[in-house]
Every structure is written in C-alpha cells, then in structure tokens.
Amino acid sequence: MEYMRTVDLKDGRKCTLRHGTGNDGREALEAFIQMREETDYLLTYPEENTSSVEDEIAYLEKKAGSEREMEIVAEVDGELVGMAGISAVGDSFKVRHRAELGISVIREFWHLGIGRALMDACVECAKDAGYEQIELSVVADNERAVTMYKKDGFVEFGRNPRGFKSRISGYQELIYMRKEL
Ligand SMILES: CC(C)(COP(=O)(O)OP(=O)(O)OC[C@H]1O[C@@H](n2cnc3c(N)ncnc32)[C@H](O)[C@@H]1OP(=O)(O)O)[C@@H](O)C(=O)NCCC(=O)NCCS
C-alpha cells in the first residue's frame, strides 16, 4: 500500500509520513533496534533481532507492494524517526476483516505529535484496505500509548496480567484494544 502526507509537529517542524520502501532498509533496521534499546514496552529486546539489512529491504518492498499490509515511516529533516504498520490478522474469510497495528517513535522525537500522526495514517489506510476492525496490545503501564489509543476511540476488550515477562520489571500486564472502522 502507498501513502504520503506531511504534518506540522508541535515544535513547528514538518514530518513526512510515507510508505517505506527498500531504500529505507538500513535506516529502518537501525531505528528498529534503537527503539528497542530505548523502551521496555515492545515485544522484543534489541539482540533478539534476526533480520539483516537485506531482510529489511525485502520486508519493506513486500509491504509496499501489498494491498492489505503496509509499513509507514515518519521522517523529520530527512531522518527516519518513527515507524508504524498494519498487518492482517489472517487471510481466511473469518478474520479478513481484522488488522493489527504497531507504532514506535525514537525517544528523542516523542511528545511532538508523531505517534498520533502515525496512528491516524494507519487507521486511514486500514479503512481504505477494507478492514472493519483494527486491534493492538499495549503494556498497561505504557500510559502515553494507552492515552493515545483511548483518545482515538480504541476500547479495551481484555487483559493478560502476565502478557510479557520483562527482564527489568517482571510481568507486564497487556491490554487488548480494538477500534471498529
Ligand atoms: C507511544 C508512542 C508511539 C507515542 O509517540 P509520540 O510521538 O510521543 O506521541 P504524540 O506526541 O503524538 O502523543 C500522542 C498522545 O500521547 C498522549 N500523551 C502525550 N504525553 C503524555 C503524557 N506525558 N502522559 C500521558 N499521555 C501522554 C497524549 O494523548 C498525546 O496526544 P495529544 O498530543 O493529542 O494530547 C511513543 O511514546 C513510543 O514510541 N513509545 C515506545 C514504543 C511504544 O510503546 N509503542 C506502542 C506499543 S503498543
């Protein structure tokens, strides 16, 4: 799927949101690892990454050519500072209406409106792709993310008290959220 939009950030800078392409492979992989070094709220640790730059290029090219999935990158002053994606829960008829959402922003660029802009872009693309529901899971302590999703109309539909087991904080409760499109 393709996407392109420019938004104004809270500090006056511009942020370009666009679908990622193979050309973003190296920077996207570096950002992916950096984001996992900067927060304990994502699924994996940095050293658990098994993708090479070539894998990332192939991944982004596949998403750019897909009609149902996409990866959006956020750029500020030419630097890749955030990523978000929608992926299908499955291809079988009974779950074709459901998409999953994931978002991450490099810490130095938090609080500027990039997370919200990425979320809005994903919701818009999910609608355009024909999905009827968008879903996510979020660590309950991740106040910024939970607030952001709630403000946008995501509603909680369950919790897993032992969803993640963090090396730092032990069990992390996961909240499951969904939004009807
Ligand atoms: C969650 C995350 C994507 C938010 O990105 P961001 O660019 O900082 O988000 P924004 O600046 O657009 O702010 C989004 C919303 O967060 C909420 N928020 C901002 N600051 C907050 C604070 N101090 N406390 C609680 N909520 C806050 C607000 O609802 C804000 O919306 P508003 O600006 O309309 O008021 C980012 O913090 C991140 O990448 N975290 C690490 C990875 C992660 O947790 N991803 C989500 C996994 S489910």
Structure characterization notes:
The protein has helices spanning 25-38, 53-64, 114-128, 143-151, and strands at residues 4-8, 14-19, 70-76, 79-88, 98-105, 133-139, 155-166, 170-180. It is of the alpha+beta class and 181 residues long. It has a single domain (4-136), classed as Gcn5-related N-acetyltransferase (GNAT) (Aminopeptidase, 3-Layer(aba) Sandwich). Strands 1-2-3-4-5-6-8-7 form an 8-stranded mixed β-sheet, sandwiched between helices. Helix 1 (25-38) crosses helix 2 (53-64). The longest helix is centred in the last third of the chain and has 15 residues, at 114-128. The radius of gyration is 16 Å and the shape is globular. The model has no long low-confidence stretch (mean pLDDT 97). The structure holds coenzyme A.
Mean pLDDT equals 97
Q: Count the E strands.
A: 8
User: What is the helix tally?
Assistant: 4
- Cα Rg: 16 Å
CATH 2nd-level architecture: 3-Layer(aba) Sandwich
For the report, how would you describe the main beta sheet? 8 strands, mixed
Cα separation of the termini: 18 Å
Could you state the CATH homologous superfamily?
Gcn5-related N-acetyltransferase (GNAT)
Uncertain regions: pLDDT < 50 for 5+ in a row? Answer: none
Give the spatial strand order of the biggest sheet.
1-2-3-4-5-6-8-7
The secondary-structure element order is: EEHHEEEHEHEE
Dominant shape: globular
- Provide the β-strand percentage band: 35-45%
Overview features:
single chain, 181 residues, alpha+beta, Aminopeptidase, 4 helices, 8 strands, binds coenzyme A
